[in-house]
Design a protein that fits this description.
CATH superfamily of the domain at 81-240: P-loop containing nucleotide triphosphate hydrolases
Structural class: alpha+beta
CATH class of the domain at 81-240: Alpha Beta
Shape: globular
Radius of gyration: 37 Å
Largest sheet: 6 strands, mixed
Strand content: 25-35%
CATH topology of the domain at 81-240: Rossmann fold
Amino acid sequence: MGRSGVQVNKAHKTRVSSKSSRNLHKTSLQDKGRISKPEGNHVKGAKAARLQRAKMVREQKRAAVLKEKRASGGGLSSAPRVIVLFPLSASVDLNSLGEDVLKLLSTDGDVTFSSTVASSEYKLRATVLKAPHGDLLTCMEMAKVADLIAFVASANEDISSLIDSFGSQCLSVLRSIGLPSTAVLIRDLPSELKKKNKLKKMCASRLASEFPKDCNFDPADTRDELHQFMGLLKAQRLSVPHWRKQRPYVVAQKVGMLVDDTTPGKCTLLLSGYLRARKLSVNQLVHVTGVGDFQLSKVEVLKDPFPLLNERRKQNSMELDDSHDEEVLRSLVPDPMKQEPLVTENTPDPLEGEQTWPTEAEMAEADRNQKQGKPKKRSLPRGTSEYQAAWIIDEIDEEDSDNGDSYDDRMVLDRGEDHYSNQDQDFEDDKETLYVQDMDNETHNDSEMMDDETLTREQYEDQIKKSKEAHAEDEEFPDEVETPIDQPARKRFAKYRGLKSFRTSPWDPNESLPQDYARIFAFDNVARTQKLVLKQALKMEEEEEESRDDCVPTGSYVRLHIKEVPLVAASKLSSIVSTKPIIAFGLLQHESKMSVLRFSLKKYDGYEDPIKTKEELMFHVGFRQFVARPVFSTDNISLDKQVMERFLHPGRFSLASVYGPISFPSLPLVVLKISDADAPAFAAFGSLKSIEPSKIVLKKIILTGYPQRVSKMKASVRYMFHQPEDVRWFKPVEVWTKCGRRGRVKEPLGTHGAMKCIFNGVVQQHDVVCMNLYKRAYPKWPERMYPQLL
């Protein structure tokens, strides 16, 4: 028999594989089940490892979700959920709503300001708080610990007035802090179903823009409606702001004191409550809101006073004894070797910066140099350091050399980089051209006499006043200051210096620091330190309870023994525990130390009073609150130097630098204005940006003068200075005009501080000559740090 009729062609030789050759390894759907993949051990092992890793990741995520659900579910192993009833207007009756909710959750009718109940019907434990209308501080503290905020609106009012001014202000504050899960309860709806649904839709439409998109609007007039709301609450997965999950905290339900005669004015503060968010170590430092940072002397784990009862024990729930509530199950005492020390401020050594006496070799070398008479490289002012010598202008004008001006009375000028702009070279070319053009007028300008040389002091002051009034409309710069007549400008502005370029001129961050900087701490690398601290806290949270004998698990009912608390503050906390939440939270490493914190903040639109720099304000940073006196500055991330602002301007974000306890970002910020007569007012909001003591904030001032005689690009300027010595002192600093000219001071004229200036263009007679001067600004240390001690 012959061959088969199937044609077989010779394979085409090519350097690149064809489409058919690339598809040879593929199989059809019919043959897919019969052809198996290679059984190499390395391939099989790699695939098995990938599958195993994916399985472990799924199990870890599932366990984390289940743990979070159990922790926030209000069950047996978790702390009770905190429900805050917040009125949107003054006409809302919270007392009746609070009674209805508590009666629904418990069999007894015990209604207090802060009530914790355990419901066996809903298998839920809850703490119900009623926010007082008009008390901003209490509403803020309740919102910081709330798991659910139920905003209550009354349908009796007009639809346009469901939220009053205080309610709108509180909503702005709560958004700045971070809203947890929210719900809106509408009260006082009509009984007729059609009108009720219509009015409910109108109220929801009016309030929808003020709340998150997932917020529910529910009626809350009858028991059945509240029952439906509690069912949704039980099934809902509550969410809280991220910053609350990083630190353990306790909301005190009982406050006590143990007075010790050995430490007068101090006592041991006892706070009892449920531990939330994370585990607490007895070796940690804790912060009591409004009081300060302290160490723990003991932590006691008590029997849960509100157990979640089942149906069999429901009848015996009322027979719980008070002695059982205080039963101590476990007691933890700190280890002196592991307990974190309470360090707030650095203690500087007064002799650390002492100048040492020169050695004999240094003295011999100085004598040798003096005998040899080595010429100086440059003429520098007396007492100029090596760093300051880099600021002095090296060039000496020929006119100054002829006049014999001494460079010992020159102000320090920061030159910056020589190549930062081509405008400097153009300006030098203009000056050289200027000398050639005006050579004929040089003798005339040097010999002219000023008109005010023969004036008395009173007449001279009147002339200055008239000149200032004539140019009052042009004073568009808020940094303009007047040079005093009775004090030399070189003494009045001795701390100021000029900058050739604000962007590129260097400024040593460690130069001439104030004494308060010796009391603070700084990090070499803030981001790395924060990462290590958070990693250490997470490691403690993930460790098993048996491996750590110094930790209390989340959800336990504990009693904290906080030692060395001021007796006055402890007495005040005991008196307000029934009306205001008392919060104690665990601090991360380094968070008790003082440093310079940088906040990005914006003025609240509803606050109309001015906020001045270094004014005393109350800062609420997360759970922490302290008093600070900030310095405001521009928020420009592209520069290493910031310009100080004398006031906090509305409508834009600014940077605030304060002395305060270290807190790792990001944390929300709420700023309150302190007033002796009225309650603190909401002034600004923002967030913690960084911890940077080396950030440079410069205060800028502008000295102004007015041209008296103008000759093309030359002008005789007066009223900027009042003494010729001041002119020589500030001669290295560049001057500029409001019409855009740049120039320099050439020489003083007369005895009243007038001066001759040269510019890079023609100067107008009505122009104003300005000079920029800078000095570094620092925040002010507050007299008392915490508001409860005020």
